[in-house]
Design brief:
The complex is a heterodimer of chains A (140) and B (109). By secondary structure, chain A is of the alpha+beta class. Chain A has one domain: Immunoglobulin-like (Sandwich), CATH 2.60.40.2470. Chain A is built from two helices and nine strands, in the order H-H-E-E-E-E-E-E-E-E-E. In chain A, the strands form two sheets. In chain A, strands 1, 3, 5, 6, 8 and 9 form a six-stranded mixed β-sheet that branches. A three-stranded antiparallel β-sheet of chain A has the order 2-4-7, with no helix packed on it. Chain A is globular, with a radius of gyration of 19 Å. Chain B is mainly beta. Chain B has strands at 7-10, 14-15, 19-27, 49-56, 59-66, 75-82, 86-94, 99-108. In chain B, the strands form two sheets. Chain B has a five-stranded mixed β-sheet, with no helix packed on it. Chain B has a three-stranded antiparallel β-sheet with strand order 1-3-6, with no helix packed on it. Classes of the chains: A alpha+beta (140), B mainly beta (109). Chains A and B meet through strand 6 and strand 7 of A and strand 5 and strand 6 of B.
């Protein structure tokens, strides 16, 4: 392919448009900030927490989500593509059995759902999964 | 808000001591997220249930903080340990200050 000035310009504007269309970085950083505020910048491990979510959610208004982290005292859910990334925080009391919970959440669009668990020893565990949303929730 | 709010809870009636039981709760509530607009383009103010707790004989099982991303008619499923015969108390806290409660007894043999 012969690279003319016109083609280079076209290429450049194409990538720019793509970057502005996705718009994910802004929201993702919001979630990152929220997680950093929660953990105080502590290192986050992976593996001791299970996040159950559908691969494809046809209706973003009610997406079933389940979390489970044996030994956790608290699990916080985030959705990084929602206008507000925080979803819910589960605090487990002394009579809680499996440190697991399920609920239904709203997802504005296809995005990552993130769960961060605070363990009994004070460490943190994280799980992340992408949910494809056909019709977004949150109205608008 | 506060019209037509009805909590529903599913708890087994009997269990063995120390057994793990599954509890399902659902409360009818429109959970207005504060993100939607009405037909005139004005933002509909947020009106959600912001906290849900489940206790057994005064001891906490789960305490959930809800954000607007929780679906209409908030649903929760979780597991509890039942050491003795007693009563579960479920409490939902509405943005408008209303508190809804529901109790279920369980017999432990």
């Amino acid at each position: 392919m012969e690279l003319t000035r016109r083609k280079i310009l076209a290429l450049g504007s194409g990538t720019l448009a793509f970057a502005s269309l996705t718009g994910l970085p802004a929201f993702a950083s919001l979630t990152d900030e929220a997680i950093a505020a929660l953990t105080g910048g502590a290192e986050i491990g992976e593996g001791a927490i299970t996040l159950t979510a559908p691969e494809i959610a046809e209706n973003g208004n009610t997406v079933p989500i389940g979390v489970s982290a044996p030994g956790a005292t608290q699990i916080t859910l985030y959705a990084d593509g929602n206008p507000v990334p925080s979803v819910a925080t589960f605090n487990f009391g002394p009579l809680s059995a499996s440190r697991s919970a399920s609920t239904r959440i709203r997802l504005a669009k296809t995005q990552n759902v993130v769960a961060v668990a605070k363990m009994e020893d004070g460490s943190y565990q994280m799980a992340k999964t992408e949910v494809k949303v056909t019709i977004g929730g949150c109205g608008g | 808000m506060a019209s037509g709010v009805k909590p529903r809870v599913k708890v087994p009636k009997k269990a063995a001591a120390g057994e793990t039981i599954t509890i399902k709760t659902l409360i009818s509530h429109k959970m207005e997220s504060g993100q939607r607009k009405d037909s005139d383009g004005n933002i509909i103010p947020r009106s959600i249930i912001n906290r849900f707790t489940a206790d057994f004989n005064g001891q906490n099982v789960i305490d959930v903080t809800l954000e607007p991303a929780i679906s209409t008619n908030p649903f929760f499923e979780f597991e509890a340990v039942v050491p003795e015969t007693g009563e579960f108390t479920f409490t939902w806290y509405d943005d408008d200050g209303d508190v809804y409660t529901e109790s279920k007894e369980i017999t432990v043999s």
